[in-house]
Amino acid sequence: xxLFAILDLVIGLIFIYFLLSLACSAVxxxxxxxLRLRPKVLNQWILDTFSKGxxxxxxxxxxxxxxxxxxxxxxxxxxxxxxARVLLDIIHHRQFGDKPYTIDSLRQAITATDLLDDDxxxxxLQSIAEASGEVTRVRxxxxxxxxxxxxxxxxxxxxxxxxxxxxxxxVLTGLLNADTIELARYLYxxxxxxxxxxxxxxQIAHDSTYREVVNKIKQAEQDTLRPWQNAxxxxxNINQNVAQLKSLKAELDATKLPLxxxxxxxxxxxxxxxxxxxxxxxxxxxxxxxDMLNKLVNLRSVGKKPAATKVEPEQETRS
Length: 319
Hints:
The chain is mostly helical. It is 76% helix and 0% strand.
């Protein structure tokens, strides 16, 4: 088997991993939207962090926060400036009622409150001491703290999504019987299918539509608590992912690979190993496999033999 044929086989396997990874990402987005995983993670963090005196509930019910979403829906995203205003407003209101706060009254309210942990109170009082009498600077310090906290909350959400994707990849691999060992054997024994799959992978690698999908997944990984602007956007996202799944199914059907279960005797130890390898590979994500696919496709393009140049009659005569 030539090196070029081996390269085609590897590209074919990676192409399958890429398609299955895209399907997993689409299913994960649908599940997250239906279960409202983003707002649940954010809201639970606020309730846990500000549990004293039910201040966490007060923050979520404050009009500046509650007004970000439709009635009865949890906020999936809270701007840091609004959070800072709400937190300081609630602390001050518990001590001085509806009276607008100044830097001095805010210092008194924070000193007297028992709604905040001692270390957080000290941090706020230090911010007030360094604010030179400007309430805006205090709010900016709270905003900075909240932004840093959101990075950790995003990490928590990302861990949950990674677990979901791994579970989806296991289920999808099992349903399709996408056995890496069996697929590699099939591609090895069928040169025409192997080359056709590699050619299709090369087309996909240069397809701007797929590149946009991968970039969207990358953006989601970097900003895991990004908000939906409204319910219609969330529904539209679900519809897009459903359409993507249909497109991916058609793409997989077109490969003519031996996917699916058949009634035949087989070595179940080898079968399980092949399925496990596929599931773990798919869980690495579409961006990883798309980048890998592009590198190998470029290598394949370099290794192709140049097309024969047609010799003009006039050149033949001269020679």
